Amino acid sequence: MTQRAGQLPDLETTSLGIELGSTTIKACLIGPDHAPVATGSHLWENELVDGLWTYSLEAVWAGVQGAFAALGDEVERRYGQRPDTFGAIGVSAMMHGYLAFDADGELLVPFRTWRNTNTAVAAAELSETFGTNIPLRWSVAHLYQAILDDEPHLARIASLTTLAGYVHRALTGEHVLGVGDASGVFPIDPATGTYDQRMLEQLGHLAAAKHPGLKAEGLLPQVLPAGADAGRLTPEGAVLLDPTGTLEAGIPLCPPEGDAGTGMVATNSVATRTGNVSAGTSIFAMVVLENPLETTHHAIDIVTTPAGDPVAMVHCNNGASELDAWAGVFGEFAAALGHPCEPDAVFGALLTAALNGSPDGGGLLAYNYLAGEPITGLDEGRPLFVRTPGSRLDLAGFARAQVYGVFGTLALGMRVLADQGVEIDAMFAHGGLFRTAGVAQRLLAAAIGAPVAVGRTAGEGGAWGIAVLAAYARAAEAESDLTLGTYLAERVFGDIDLEVVEPDAADLAGFRTYLERYEAGLDIERAAVASLAPTADPAATADPAPTAVEGDQ
């Protein structure tokens, strides 16, 4: 799948996807053959404000407008005209978190992102009451924690949503969510395709003591499956996207989705016994379930595909950011020697070196914990690199240990699924980490003990995935019996080649040894959290700007 050259497709046949990732907001325009026509991006950073990770709404719109303008610039540069319409638009963003508004649409408290871990009490109580795992980052956990803390803003709350839902409502006026994104807000009943009514009633009983008039059901967005009509771009929304006034109103939008859902679409992993791994600032695996899990586990969320099918999700708060930071150090060192390198070259050298490292990391350990990690029971993180005196410190071992560190917590969660008998026929990977051919892919195969496939769309990311969902919504309007799975398999991925890597025996054994050491060493991480206070350096309260590895998740 390559970008077009030559003539611009009829804009009425194109689809625009916008995804707000944790470090990059990206816009992707695709043609009727789903190939990218143009892209635009805008870097942004989360902030740690009063102990909570957030983004301001001003930053949201500066980023969305910046990405859209950059896409328009590319279209104009390549094709000689600026886009004034599209066939369809889709919005995606980081899942979960908490955006609470009053009846006038005023944000009541700063946006609380998925990265926050202050909801432990609420999540534990909800998990016990509902009989299913409610992770700390889910929107209902944030809501119930606010109820437990008796936060003053609850007296005025009229609605709550996710980041994708907020942007979509600003563009269309519709308070809706795609079912995949909604499944990270509140548990979904697979029989009805919307929020579980029993659990909503249970939440009402829990909340009654402090806020008897608070009805969660009335706050939550309407749930829509992929392909549904989710509204049209209003004149006010058109100006929000394009302040120049060039963009026309009336364009249809597909249901807004989360980054997990767009990752499934971007890797064609919406069928049972398939899954995908998305690596960016966080890292998570999605496995479409053939059968319900036998038991609940704190490491496993049950969410859905954009079509509403149950998915087991292993979500780790910490992904490639620490590897990204180390690559930046090596880039600075090369520049200090008088040999400045592009980030892609630095990552290529670093990741390629990992293939020559000892299969077990040579006694080296890397923890990528910039934030807390619920799967391993840590409320805060301290990035660490640890070795024993007898270990060998060289570039190859260091690089392998760092890549293994990206996959360490994920492997612990995937082991839980394996213990419950979940079988995977194919695992697809996407994100900037997999742009260097064959390295992270091979080591991920060792970490999860399954074949890993990477296609030419691996680097396109969720903006391409939500553009495809927008295109599917147009197709489904004309063909009511067209399923998302059929659309992806036959019309999007039918001619896309995949590179599949089977787990290497030596790597499998080596990673198993590394993971044993990694589990044992978690006590070091806990001691670091207890002993080292968070930095007071304002420059360290936001993630560094992403480079080639971290991608746009």
TrEMBL record:
The keyword Glycoprotein does not apply. The keyword Kinase applies. One of its GO terms (biological process) is D-xylose metabolic process. Residues 16-241 form the Carbohydrate kinase FGGY N-terminal domain. Keywords: Carbohydrate metabolism, Kinase, Transferase, Xylose metabolism. One of its GO terms (molecular function) is kinase activity. Pfam families: FGGY_C, FGGY_N. Residues 276-473 form the Carbohydrate kinase FGGY C-terminal domain. It comes from the Bacteria. Belongs to the FGGY kinase family. This is ATPase.
